[in-house]
Amino acid sequence: MAKNKHGGKKPEQVDDSFGSVLQVGPGFRLADLDPAATPGFSGKKKDAEKAMDAARDEIDDLQERLYAGGRDGDGPAILLVVQGMDTSGKGGVMRHVVGTVDPQGVRLHAFKAPSVEERRHPFLWRIRRELPPPGYIGVFDRSHYEDVLVVRVHDLVPPATWRRRYDQINSFERSANDRGIHLIKVMLHISSGEQKARLQERLDRPDKYWKFNPGDIDERERWDDYQQAYQAVFDKTSTEQNPWYAVPADHKWYARLAVQQLLLEELRGLDLHWPGPDFDVAEQQRRLAAT
Ligand code: AMP
Ligand code: MG
Q1: 151: Cβ below 6 Å to ligand 1?
Q2: Candidates 87, 109, 111, 218: which one to mutate for ligand 1, based on the most atoms within 8 Å of Cβ?
Q3: Are strands 244-248 and 106-110 parallel, antiparallel or unpaired?
Q4: How confident is the model over 62-72, as pLDDT tens digits?
Q5: CA distances, 275 to each of 63, 75, 157 (Å)
Q6: Is 146 touching ligand 1 by the criterion CB < 6 Å?
Q7: What is the pLDDT of residues 190-238, one digit of tens each?
Q8: Which of 112, 165, 169, 210 has most ligand 1 atoms within 8 Å of its beta carbon, as the pocket-test mutant?
């Protein structure tokens, strides 16, 4: 194990920071990203699982510092936004990455098609209400990006309306930053062939029927439109301040490791310290000793 600049351990197979290899920069083409690639990692499934185990203590420690720092109603929060086609592994990321973090410090929300009540409000209304308070790790399983993905693909609002949303999203995210919220925006990128195999599995296995939704096949028929809509999301909303990370996800083990490491790198970057006492330590020591 090599020590990195934050003093954390970096497993040997981790070649580079995941953030730097997965970040969506200018000129990025989703169509050119191989969904079966494992950027920044030269190990195999077993190595990835070991690397994830090795990172857990550090994540626990940093998460506790984050939480402690938010106790006074101030301080940073993290928001992990997870997007991807059906079967891309969003649920697995929730279980295997988010599920290992102390649940007291996590605010997880899965966004479904908006309710009647939600549809009466601007699209960011329901999103704003789920932003994490200081000290928390917020996690969005789908997000405001559905309002320029499924909504765009199916013409659920007039084009002029969804076209305005990219700018609205950018300024919404900047205002979240101003409140101390650090976004990690992740897109799990699978191939069409892998999706077919995963849907097939849901139809072949009684323990997976519950995950199957006949509507997933209708969405699959719009594959190319979705890929285009994701490309537009990257072109318009992968900013320097709030970049996207495109994570190849045909290998579930790689995608989970990558998201975990992106979270870890973000936590490290916050430079979290334990909050000082808001009481006189010596005085409380004396009082305790006297009991
Ligand atoms: P799942 O994540 O598989 O439980 O499915 C949730 C469904 O809600 C998906 O089909 C999404 O496309 C849909 N959904 C989420 N947000 C929106 C939105 N803003 N407008 C329309 N559909 C949405
Ligand atoms: Mg689904």
Answers
A1: yes
A2: 111
A3: unpaired
A4: 999 999 999 98
A5: 13, 10, 47
A6: yes
A7: 999 999 999 999 999 999 999 999 999 999 999 999 999 999 999 999 9
A8: 112
DSSP, residue by residue, 122-191 = -TTHHHHTTPPPTT-EEEEES-GGGGGTHHHHTTSS-HHHHHHHHHHHHHHHHHHHHTTEEEEEEEEE--
- Distance, in Å, from the CA atom of 83 to the CA atom of 246, rounded to the nearest integer, reads 10
What is the average per-residue pLDDT within 130-134?
98
Assessment of whether the complete model's pTM goes beyond 0.90: yes
Please give the structure tokens belonging to residue 237.
Answer: 């909303």
Distance CA 11, CA 260 (A): 13
248 strand-pairing partners? 189
Q: Enumerate residues with CB within 5 Å of ligand 2 (an ion).
A: 86
